[in-house]
Amino acid sequence: MATKDETRTGDELIDEAQEAEEERGGSREERAANLFDIRRIIGGLFLFYGIVLTVMGFGASDQDIARAHGINVNLSVGI
User: How far is CA 31 from CA 9, 21, 34, 37, 39, in A?
Assistant: First the structure.
């Protein structure tokens, strides 16, 4: 790991911003890794599927509901 003197750019404002960033929550690489965390991606997929099923449930025909023994399955699962 580089020391503070090795990471200095010579520009006072940039150096202060980098120090504040490190104090706030780690480096840029760590925040980028957290942004693409697999749990966020899977959660987004569940949200997307829930929205799709809810929309499909609102548009379900009487025949679709009759096939499911009177239950609007898409709407129930989507919600």
Answer: 21, 10, 5, 10, 15
Query: pLDDT, tens digit, for every residue of 11-37?
Result: 887 878 777 776 766 667 777 777 777
| Rg of the chain, C-alpha, whole Å | 25
Q: Is 29 exposed, middle or buried (0-12, 13-18, 19+ CB in 10 A)?
A: exposed
3-state secondary structure of 68: coil
Distance of CA 65 to the CA centre of its chain: 33
Q: How many residues does the chain have?
A: 79
